[in-house]
Amino acid sequence: MPFDYSRLAATCAVDSPENAITLPPQAYGSDDLYADEVDQIFKRGWIPLCRLEQLGVPGSYYSIDILGMPLVVTRDRNGEVRVLSRNCTHRWMEVCSGAGTAGVLQCPYHLWSFGLDGHLAGAPEMKQSAGFERKDYALKQFRHEVWKGFVFVNIDGHATSVAEQYAALEPIVDPYDFENYQTVEQTEWGICDWDWKIMVDNFMECYHHMGPHRGSLEEQFPAALSYTGEVGEYFTTMWSQQADGYPADPPFLSPGAPTLSPEHSHKSLIFIAYPLLQIAMGPGYFYWLKVLPMGAGKIDLYLDICMSPAALAAPGLDARRSELIKMICDIHREDLDVCAAVQRAIKSGVTATGRLSHLERPLWEFYRYLGRQLGILGNTADLASAG
Ligand code: FES
Ligand SMILES: [Fe+2]
After folding, report:
1. Which CATH superfamily is domain 47-154 in?
2. Which end of the chain has fewer CB atoms < 10 Å from its terminal CB, N or C?
3. SUPFAM superfamilies of this UniProt entry (predicted)?
């Protein structure tokens, strides 16, 4: 059945959060819509690939597949970061996989070798090939930028700069100094049978603390105390506020940067920098979901955990790091079951649109973003501000 854009447009065009409704269920499983999301959202936007500290030394490389394209993020011998295609320029084999350090990336098929800057450094048995010049066969390079320690790629090369898109986020996130947080754990959750928008819907509201997180988060971080923060054309923020009477305990809420206010020690900042960077952050930690869309209703999911410099320097690091990783993974697991169940409902053919609570205002903001990017909303001038 062709996708009904008019129903999607109706959701995206709702002009006040009091009237917010869900997306039409078919929006989470339509191949037609997914093809448009690839062209108009993922290729045009900035996709986070990894943290800079994952490329700690010259010669580091980190492989990642985006939208079916095999990419590698490298740091060359001069320290410069690049995002390159992993497809060999001979006959397209992948020149590397995984992550590590290397002097060159040598294709395993016919042993052409490429510098970490992408240039073709060696190609055996090519002297008899008329006119062949190594300089014509560098690995394809993609546009990248670094923001707050994240390496982003822009596939189509035409996006406004990442710093410009997320500029209004900086006053909110800069007190955390999260640029200098360090990755302490990378977790893989594999191919998940739900749409990237289901993951965003789940991540960007704390209403469900009272459901799947009733035994973990709800008592200390009740759904009812969460609220939407600043929003912009390319991001939405929300806060999960601690109930009265709880201390600012490690590993989540302390220790943190001296630039934070005492108030920061009693809440977590949750934000999405569209389309895909999803972060939950406190003075002591942040984690980010690496959601790699694989098709309508399918993602490849990773979750990476970082600790603040103050948290890394405090006594008892091993115990606090283990506790942090366990708590985040346990809570994340509680989300997976509901995401899978929602996608099953969509596959079963539900058609009715749902209503949203005021605690789901970030979803209303997300749907307006979708409407703008997909060109089905018209006017982009009337962005909502803080709520
Ligand atoms: S495909 Fe890479 S060297 Fe032939
Ligand atoms: Fe959750």
Report:
1. Rieske [2Fe-2S] iron-sulphur domain (2.102.10.10)
2. N
3. Bet v1-like (SSF55961), ISP domain (SSF50022)
Mean pLDDT for 115-142 is 98
Do the domains 5-45+160-374 and 47-154 sit in the same CATH topology, yes or no?
no
User: Ligand 1: distance of its center to the CA of 86 in Å?
Assistant: 11
Please report the atom of ligand 1 found closest to the CA of residue 110. Answer: 3
Please state, in angstroms and rounded to a whole number, the distance separating the CA atoms of residues 142 and 139: 10
The domain ranges of the chain are 5-45+160-374, 47-154
Mean pLDDT score of the chain = 96
47 in Cβ contact with 64 (< 8 Å) = no
Ligand 1 near 93 CB (within 6 A):
yes
Nearest residue (CA) to ligand 1, atom 1: 91
Nearest CA owner, ligand 1 atom 4: 110
Determine which residue's CA is closest to atom 3 belonging to ligand 1.
Answer: 110
| Yes or no: domain 5-45+160-374 corresponds to CATH 3.40.109.10 | no
pLDDT bin (cut points 50, 70, 90) of residue 378 is low
Q: Which of 127, 364, 320 is nearest to 231 (CA)?
A: 364
Which residues lie below 8 Å from residue 16, measured CB to CB, with a gap of 6+? none
- Nearest ligand (C-alpha, residue 93): 1
Predicted confidence (pLDDT) per residue in 78-125, tens digit: 999 999 999 999 999 999 999 999 999 999 999 999 999 999 999 999
Q: CB of 90 closer than 6 A to ligand 1?
A: yes
